[in-house]
Specification:
The protein is an alpha+beta fold. The chain has helices spanning 3-9, 28-32, 51-60, 81-100, 113-132, and strands at residues 15-20, 36-42, 70-75. The chain has one domain (3-100): 2-Layer Sandwich (Double Stranded RNA Binding Domain), CATH 3.30.160. A 3-stranded antiparallel sheet has the order 1-2-3, covered by helices on one side.
């Protein structure tokens, strides 16, 4: 699923935002401005996700889900709260799209006969080189 298709569902109504002071270097701006943005999205209470999608998200994103069943994402890289809010929303949609994308099943393949022969031939030549490195009998 693409993030654009997810945006059309209207998840924005189910977001809960909170702002706090960012950590790290930054001087006066960090000490007095709440630029760090935290997005909380309750998976269990969401009306826009099916039960199957909720189960997949709970399984794949369990490290980002708290005990209350909320998906919690933060952003604090930018200097303004608005940019951090945009960044955390973008991260939410890409994370959700990645979690809901179904991976293709891998088809096991066998090596070709020519590649097997080539591998054995190179192994033989390497072995011969190593034999030549040994002691010489006089």
């Amino acid at each position: 699923m693409l993030p654009e298709k997810l945006k059309q569902r209207g998840f924005d109504t189910e977001f809960t935002f909170s702002a706090s002071r960012s950590s790290g270097a930054g001087g006066q701006n960090v000490n007095k401005v709440n630029t760090k943005v935290e997005l909380r999205f309750s998976i269990e209470l969401s009306m826009l996700l099916s039960d199957n999608e909720k189960a997949v998200i709970n399984e794949k994103l369990k490290n980002k889900i708290n005990l209350n069943g909320e998906l919690v994402l933060t952003a604090q890289a930018e200097r303004t709260q608005l940019r951090n809010k945009e960044m955390v929303i973008h991260n939410f949609y890409t994370l959700l799209a990645k979690a809901l994308t179904v991976q293709k099943k891998r088809k096991p393949t066998k090596p070709k006969i020519s590649s097997i022969e080539k591998r054995l031939k190179t192994k033989k030549s390497r072995g011969e080189n190593k034999v030549l490195r040994g002691k010489i009998d006089f």
